[in-house]
Amino acid sequence: MARPIHAMIDLMALRANVQRVRACAPTQQLIAVLKANAYGHGAVQVAQALAGLVEAFAVCSLEEALELRAAEVVEPIVLLEGFFEADELAIIAQQNIQIAVHSTQQLEILLKSPELAQSLNIWLKVDTGMRRLGFYPKDVATMWKHLQPQFASVRIMSHLACADERDSVSTREQIKQFTTLMNALKTEGSLANSAGVLAWETAHVHWVRPGIMLYGASPFPNTVGSQEGLQSVMTLHSSLISVKTAKQGDSIGYGATFRCPQTMPIGVVAVGYADGYPRHAPTGTPVLVNGRRVPLIGRVSMDMITVDLRTQPNARAGDPVILWGRGLPIEEIAAHAQTIAYELLCNVAPRVPRVWRG
Ligand SMILES: *Cc1c(COP(=O)(O)O)cnc(C)c1O
């Protein structure tokens, strides 16, 4: 028998979440963000499930884009960081791949091969406040006349730093700078990530770029996806592989960080940090055993965790466990581990088999 851990990927939920994006942004074009193996959900399977339902995909690198092309995904694919080396450009042009252009180094390389540039659709990345990638708005305004004729198309994109705050002076300022530039240049733009889609209608402009909401998690602190009308896509399943009785005063696991207050049943679950379960999840983090919550106790090991079964004295080895997903919001686990749902999803290890449904 195989080790019981697996991640169920509910493609119906994924498609329902696309409908939620459409409800928020009914007239915009939709770029589904599939970087990092579609946040751990399987980029190829997610792209195939969304074929025809979205206008484009976005990934982080040419390698990620070519994995989709090899699987016969035909939609345009945007490289969010553009290219890294000149020798990527020929294949980018040939494969209907669009690129973010964020640096003068990239522009110099592009303008050295004008015939190639003529066949490229680019997104000039504008830094409206994130202070990460991109040109400042005033520099884009001056570059524009010279640049715009050199490419098949030039659009602009920018990224919001604080869209997960439902009211934020800096977000309002970023949106203002972006739309002012977009209108001055009379070009199309893209600004909204998931939080922008859900909370900042003025950021929707022409193309929205949701990632996390497609996978059913909330981009906002202290809320869960269902409160935003989203359905969780990944459910991480495993089983109890051992149930036994520990005596009062026994300590559990590495570092002996949990001491049993009484003689009690404990269970061992086949999941650990090598599977992507967060090592920093402390005692008390909820785990579903037979559909009911029990607390994790002691430290997370590489391949196992231990749970307190006092509320389930009849639980047995083989009983089903859910670590997050349906019935147990991933945002809650992330909060216990002092991280965000994004990181937990991306960290699900390659050794965890994915099972796609629907
Ligand atoms: C990852 C990413 C997104 C998607 O962000 P979510 O918060 O997951 O919706 C959008 N735009 C860019 C540039 C990104 O890197």
Mean pLDDT across every amino acid position: 97
β-strand number? 18
Determine the structural class based on helices, strands and strand pairing.
Answer: alpha/beta
Strand order of the largest sheet: 8-7-6-5-4-3-2-9
Fraction of residues in helix: 25-40%
Strand content: 15-25%
Heteromolecules bound: pyridoxal-5'-phosphate
User: Based on the structure given, which CATH architecture of the largest domain is correct?
Assistant: Alpha-Beta Barrel
Give the SSE string.
EHEHHEHEHEHHEHEHEHEEEEEEEEEHHE
Cα(first) to Cα(last) distance is: 25 Å
**Any idea what the shape is?**
elongated
State the major sheet: 8 strands, parallel
**CATH domain class name of the largest domain:** Alpha Beta
Structure description:
The chain is an alpha/beta fold and 358 residues long. The protein has 2 domains: 11-216, Alanine racemase (TIM Barrel, Alpha-Beta Barrel); 234-357, Lyase, Ornithine Decarboxylase, Chain A, domain 1. The protein has 12 helices and 18 strands. The strands form 3 sheets. Strands 8-7-6-5-4-3-2-9 form an 8-stranded parallel sheet. Strands 10-13-16-15-14-17 form a 6-stranded antiparallel beta barrel. Strand 11 and strand 12 form a beta hairpin. Helix 8 runs parallel beside helix 9 (169-185). It is elongated and about 75 Å long. The site of pyridoxal-5'-phosphate (PLP) has 11 residues, from loops.
